[in-house]
Specification:
Length: about 300
Amino acid sequence: MSVLCFGELLWDIIDGKEYIGGAPYNVAAHNKKLGVASYMYTRVGNDDLGIKALAEVKRHKVNAEFVQIDSIHQTGTACVQLDDNAVPTFTLTKNTAYDFIEASPELCSAISEKNFDLFYFGTVSQKGAVSEASLHYILENCSFKEVFCDINIRKPFYTKEIIEYSLSKATILKINDGELILISKMFFGDMNEEEAISALFNSYNNIHTVLITKGPDGCTVYSKKSGSVLSKSLNYCVSPAVDTVGAGDAFSAGFIYSYLNGDDIFEASRIGNIMGDYVASQKGAIPEYDAKLLIQ
């Protein structure tokens, strides 16, 4: 199993302390810990935070073949504020290294040689015009068995065009319940969840699975692979939340690991819920795993 994650590698600043992060990197690191060959496609600055980021990539044993060094722009950061329920609000720095990720025919050739099982990307990685163009180049010139898109709404770094392009390229879509409401209003008008999912499936034939995460209420999974839309709600929340930063990314990684191992999307979502719940109960987006987690 092999996964290529495209996008932001940055430092989350929480209560004055730095934690390595960025949704694509969190997914890559968790996938590696679960046994998936994980590659990161990103860009960091030639600065102290960049050096520390590369050390974390090495520590987590994520493949850095597609990590670029930027001599002009600084490594990305995100100031994180947690509310009383440990739910984060992110303030992203503009014009940092991951906004200038480059692509080329040579890099696409190197990607194609790897024959990746899944390509992961999100919407935050498209806030910079250079990285957005590079993502488009990769998706239009490389083939992947699955394309996993995580909609991450971070004001003001999203547009209708970014979301529409992302939806047009995904085979698996992950979105939280609040983001689904926003996107439904943006594209289809006021709809309930089932109506919005039907509209998404009808508008984007490339999407076969939609994963709606719902915090402590678990997730709802929709599939149209069988020719009709199947749905199932899965709840797994046993731990008190300490820090929910990265919990959704852990869900994604758990799902990807299980799905690529041959599990159906409902079992893969159960594993995702377990992963998300565990990370929400820990400090930082990529905590060490305990023995109890690994036997579930």
